[in-house]
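Re: that chain you flagged

S.,

Sorry for the slow reply, it's been a week of failed gels. I finally had a moment to sit down with the sequence you sent. For the record, here it is as I used it:
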Amino acid sequence: MLSFPRLYRAPILLPLVLGLAIPASGQMATPQATSTPATEGGKEAPTLPELTGIDTTAWLYKGSDLTRDPEWKFGTLPNGMRFAVRKNGVPPGQVSVRVRIDAGSLNETDSERGFAHFIEHLTFRGSEYVPDGEAKRVWQRFGATFGSDTNAQTTPTSTTFKLDLPSATETGLDESLKIMSGMMEKPTITDASVTAERPVVLAEQREQPGPQVRFGDAIRATFFAGQPLADRSPIGNIKTLEAATGATVKAFHDRWYRPENTVVIISGDMDPALFGRLIVKNFADWKRTDPFTPAPSFGKPDPKAPAAASIAEPAIPAVVTLGVVRPWEYKDDTAIMNQKRLVDVLATRLISRRLETRARAGGSFLQAGVSIDDVSRSANLTSVNIVPIGTDWEAALKDVRAVIADAQTNAPSQAEVDREYADFDTIMRTSVETAKVEAGSKQADDMASALDIRETVAGPETSYKILQDAKAKGMFTPATLLASSKAIFEGITRALVNTQTPDAGAATKLATALKADVSGLAGKRRAQAAVDFSKLPSLGRPGVVASREKIAAFDMEQVNFANGTRVLLFPNSGETGRVYVRVRFGGGYTAIPSNRPTPAWAGDLALVAGGIGKLDQGDLDQLTAGRRIGLDFGIDDDAFTLNAITSPADYADQLRLMAAKLTFPAWDPAPVARARVAALAGFAGYDSSPDGVLSRDLEALLRAGDPRWGTPSKATVEALNAKDFRAFWEPILKTGPIEVSIFGDVKTEDAIAAVAKSFGAMTPRTAVSTVGAPVSFPAHNTTPVMRAHTGPENQAAAVIAWPTGGGIDNIVEARRLDVLAQVFSDRLFERLRQAAGASYSPNVSSQWPVGMTTGGRMVAIGQVAPDKVSFFFQIARQIAAELVSTPIAADELDRIKKPMGQYILRASTGNQFWLQQLGGATFDPRRIAATQRIASDLVATTPVELQATAAKYLRPEKDWTMAVVPAATPAKK
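Prediction finished late last night. Pasting the structure tokens below so you have them in one place:
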């Protein structure tokens, strides 16, 4: 399995509505050693010879001619269980364990719907070596965070249990593998445990977004008609879950949880030989003597099934999704197979780029894209996803099909092919350059994913060589991409349209539209002119350094330029081949008016796409083709930001691009119009679920209705125009101090010279006036603020919040609040989920804005059934009162502080952590001192201090509450 991107560009809206098509359920770095030269595929000396009686053949590479990754060591136990282990020091001290069971929802019978996922829950709940609920606490004491470091996922084809063990020791890993072996072989599956966990599983099902679930179900039913995948969502259905008993669930477990179906994967900062020994120690005694049950057939697409279907979901934008379905067939993972796949992927990227160009120019669709993938060992699928402008899906479908038909009729130019290849080459070359800092958790996940589709794993160098060899063999030509563009659309065509309002004839219209002749309707292709960095407007003479100052605590340096630009440099080799650039300017939210709506909401969608000088977005895409140069915009509390992850070879031009964006912004009206259409399309989803309502309303409500954080009204969005957009953003781009942070694989003097030629060359900027009022918290209420949603009648959400503070002066209090929030969250989880089954994922968080003196808050949120809203408030207030009245016990505090401390240790090995912590430090040195104290403040936090913090902030006369209930449900206090 090669690692490469499958889509040209992440779309604006499609992930919101299409992400459920293939379902799943479930709960920064220093370099590692350089890889040794690879050997022939599957041929090697035994990798772990000290493991007597263990077959150490590289079982993964059977039938493959790919050069195997020598870092992975393999083994097969006498009981049939396999393992794959390797050393990885990213992050230092961590060991990532994955235990994959080769059974998911496709292994269920009709009466077992949801059982694979149910067992995932029961397995974590209790097993042979840990009593009910104790595994979570054991791993917390080892420093693992529940939900991120300890988790699991059930898919149609597998169930994978995940553990990232920070600062792992041999003892801790041994104990963890012992627990996991018991989880696999002997989980506690009884009538009592099933009855106890059933409300939690039903809560998880209840909290899923109804419209998106129904849309995902409709896609699967349409695309995979005639196959089990058509109706095998891992979450199951209420009927079978309510009928589940200890005996029936255990029968599913015993059928599929066997050594032969199990693979243990470990990638971590220890000797692979130790991993192998501990796996043998803890899993070798797992034996089964009953007959092995082979996996069921996943079937083939039914060519007689209807080609078109429709659904009317008002909460989802009008969407058309096409699928060209072919039977999935096992193929040996060979070099030529991967090279042919690469040709197909480049063809999809080329078509997607043409569609994106059409969408940018305006027309019938907001966005469209093509992808190709193997789906759950059930089908090979080419998918086309289209979001029309407005509701005229027929026009959008016609125009998209015309572009595809043109790609199947007329070969692309060599320049187009080279353009796509250049980007692809850059991505894969980057993987080689940054291989030393690839996280062990990703390597373990990639191995599990490869097993899902019956493929191997290939190291970055091998993957890149396969790409280069394909290029050398002439596989990327106009003729080959033309042939691929035809081949990827051969198969059974299926399509689904969401019409928002019921249309009995929609499916018939769709079927007719799929057969309509669109040849010759694509129009003339736009030829992209050659563009290089000489086309960027000149920034002027290089700037002059005014002063330099070492920051000894972090081995950093601050450089001040004569024009007022300040630079924070952190040259380091922690992430080889990566350079992080962040530019902060202006005042962020503090510089946005608080007394009226503004076009601030559209900045992320349209500001970067507006262009630079005479170059539009298409020119900028061409300018950066084959290079690691990007441009992301954001708004912080006290600054606007431009961000990019680039490379040692490209960061100087990255800086030039950013400086040119601030100095010579272009104001193409097309991105503004597109932003307006995208925002209007998103309105449909806000009322459809409690989550949608909260995403629309909560942030503004928690700031007493401040429009800076509010979702703009539909009228405000409809009124957006290019003139007003420019009038708002142009002065912002021109004013306010600039801070440039460059962290990563750079040399100090080279970086200073690069800034001198970019931001240092800009004319001095005028100060920004702070126009926004201080942030306020809403007044205490005795009756919750009520909002209604139009989604499932069994869904509701409850929110309770308390005001805290902000600013840098009392940052130690913010850190105590972080600890307090984690204690609160853990207790809320235990009582609402584990004990009552009332909410699947309640959580508590603390936010303390460093860039503002006010605006902090602690917020508890839970999705519950409508009749449990009052219960949520009761439990939350009860926990808050306990935190005020009673000091936290030592063991409980230890189980909270250790995972938090481990998170800091791991995150601080990467540059992004420091970028986040030190933003604004060149203008406010207090942030440097505060960052130095992060770990010590956490360690020093005591139960007495936390009790005092709770007493100060968790005051019942200050809390504010909100509830989101179904539209037909009476308000609950």
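What I noticed first: The chain has four domains: 54-60+70-283, 308-437+450-515, 545-761, 785-966.

Talk soon,
D.
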